[in-house]
Amino acid sequence: MYTFLKYLHSGLRYAVLLLVVAAIIGALLGWIGKKTYTEGNRKLNLFAFISAHTQLLVGLILYFISPLVQFSGATMKDATARYWTVEHITMMIIAIALITVGYLRSKKVLVPEKKHFNIFIFYLLAVIIVIVTLILSGRGVLGMSV
Fold first, then answer.
1. From the CA atom positions of the chain, what is the Rg in Å?
2. Residue 37's pLDDT is what?
3. Quick check: 127 and 25 in contact, CB under 8 A?
4. pLDDT value for 144
5. Which residues of the chain register pLDDT less than 70?
6. What whole-number distance in Å separates Cα of residue 49 and Cα of residue 28?
7. Contact 120, 38 (CB under 8 A)
């Protein structure tokens, strides 16, 4: 089960990244171009939101079954154990929280430009956090070392 979930979590990152980046681009174009907030915008933002939360759910399951996560006094002294036990999960939860806030705020406002603006800012901040966190892992953004 661990191996399956690890590969699922690894593969889902591409779908999440693609959907969130597409939502950011759509929101930027909608915000700058003062475009209406279409049903297509809503669906793209929702799919990005759902994919990010699915990734979080798989990640949380992995967190509790992974051999890389260690709950001991030595965790903070070992860079790899600290990264997987503390840093990765903390930053990813913050990123998902930003996506959630952006999506929910965009649903509440009535002005289309503000809907686009909320998605753009919050999803962009989330992607920046994810990229920085993945670079810190030493594995790079797409699983390749930088």
1. 17
2. 96
3. no
4. 45
5. 139-146
6. 17
7. no
Q: How far apart are CA 29 and CA 26, in angstroms?
A: 5
Q: Which two tokens stand for residue 131?
A: 């990229």
What are 24's two structure tokens? 């950011």
Burial of 83 (0-12, 13-18, 19+ CB in 10 A): buried
Helices and strands: H and E segment counts in the chain: 5, 0
What is the predicted pLDDT for the residue at 128? Answer: 97
- Which residue from 27, 22, 23, 24 is spatially nearest to 112, judged by alpha carbons? 27
| Residue 114 one-letter amino acid | K
- C-alpha to C-alpha distances, 43 to 92, 107, 121, 135, nearest whole angstrom: 23, 12, 18, 30
In the structure encoding, which two tokens stand for residue 46, read together? 């929702």
Instruction: Give the pLDDT score at 39.
Output: 97
Rounded Cα gap, residues 87 and 84, in angstroms: 6
CA distance linking residue 117 with residue 103, whole number of Å:
11
Q: Which residue has the tokens 């996560």?
A: 69
CA–CA dist 74, 109 (Å, integer): 47
pLDDT for 142: 57
